[in-house]
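Entry: Ring-cleaving dioxygenase
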Amino acid sequence: MRIDRLDHLVLTVADLEATVDFYTRVLGMTPITFGGGRRALVFGHSKINLHQAGQEFEPKATHPIPGSADLCLITTDSLEQVITELTAHGVPIEEGPVPRTGAIGPMDSVYLRDPDGNLIEISVYSSG
């Protein structure tokens, strides 16, 4: 077997509307509704499905809880632009910019939290 890529992941959230607002307003993702009213966020070739805590869809993780994720998202914008936009939205940067190593090489990252406290790393791959 050879896995090619990640298609989607699931976040269990305390407040669907607050999550959709944050990821669309701050991170520029597109909200969608699918399959019987399920909610998700689309970006690039990926999707984040959202489960309301206590009303998760089956099958689900063994212990789904809000605030337990640690995600790294890649942007094609400069990190300076990312910082400017986060500041404009009043979103504090928890750490960064800092150098990191991603799946395909060196990158620079900033860290922030979503409404549930999930750690969100926004990264730009180094051009060198």
